[in-house]
Amino acid sequence: MSATTRPAGEPDNTSPGDAGASTGTGLTGETALSTSTGTGGEPSNAGAPGTGRQESAAQPGTYGPEVRERLERDAKEIIGRYPRPRSALLPLLHLVQSEDGYVSDAGHEFCAEILGLSKAEVVGVSTFYTMYKRKPMGQYHVGVCINTLCAVMGGDQIWDELTEHTGVGHDETTPDGKVSLERLECNAACDFAPVMMVNWEFFDNQTPASAKQLVDDLRDGKEIAPTRGPKRLCTFKEASRVLAGLPDGLAGDGPSAGDSSLEGLRIAKANGWKAPEA
Ligand code: FES
């Protein structure tokens, strides 16, 4: 995953996730982690498309001991970066999403316990942001920009043909667990419209034909490189881990700006134009 990825913004102090009392003393829910029973009510992830998670020895709505230990280790590192534990909620939601391919009931429980928040507060935040998924996404999460410029340049047509081609709709996953689709708003890449993203890497100047070929290649397991960014695609779970703040070492790979983005700068330089003094 490259440095071009856009993480979700952190909620302000009036968001549902900020309403609970924080002691500011560190891992407020740490003790409770070992005694959680979860709430259940959500289907197990075992064998779910794109999750690959084993939950043996775990109650519904909880993680097994090995997963729990690993998540706690990562969570402590992330929480240590913030003055108050509750401020780490957004990256921790990405962390549990990297485990399950979505924010599961177990993920909500884990975040609530380790941050000393109520589960309702955690769910209130996770259901506010579209980057947190409510059901397992595919190994490759494919976004099609249908915002104004991409739409008129062909994004709407790409979306229509891709959904018909794959048989799945918004935030739905193909039966093989390989690909999920999402309608995206502007990706700040309008100069490459119409744009698609796979696990938050850019695929520029798409057509309905290239979009369908891309999805077919992903489902066939072919090696795919984004138009910009690193030479290989990570999985949706790996991308979620990067968004949690745990780098994969690929941030420096590939160009940071494409040709179209630099065209204005080239013209300005050729004409000796400069920005006015502030
Ligand atoms: S409208 Fe699609 S990237 Fe801006």
TrEMBL record:
PANTHER family linked: NADH DEHYDROGENASE [UBIQUINONE] FLAVOPROTEIN 2, MITOCHONDRIAL, NADH DEHYDROGENASE UBIQUINONE FLAVOPROTEIN 2, MITOCHONDRIAL
Q: Does the keyword Lipid metabolism apply?
A: no
Instruction: Name the Pfam families for this protein.
Output: 2Fe-2S_thioredx
Matches recorded under SUPFAM superfamilies: Thioredoxin-like
**InterPro entries, A to Z:** NuoE-like, NuoE_dom, NuoE_N, Thioredoxin-like_sf
Spans annotated as Disordered = 1-68
The text of the family note is: Belongs to the complex I 24 kDa subunit family.
Q: Where is the signal peptide?
A: none
**Listed cofactors:** [2Fe-2S] cluster
Q: Does the keyword Metal-binding apply?
A: yes
Keyword vocabulary terms for this entry: 2Fe-2S, Iron, Iron-sulfur, Metal-binding
Which CDD domains does the UniProt entry name for this protein? TRX_Fd_NuoE
Q: Which organism is it from?
A: Streptosporangium longisporum
TM ranges are: none
Protein name (database record): NADH-quinone oxidoreductase subunit NuoE
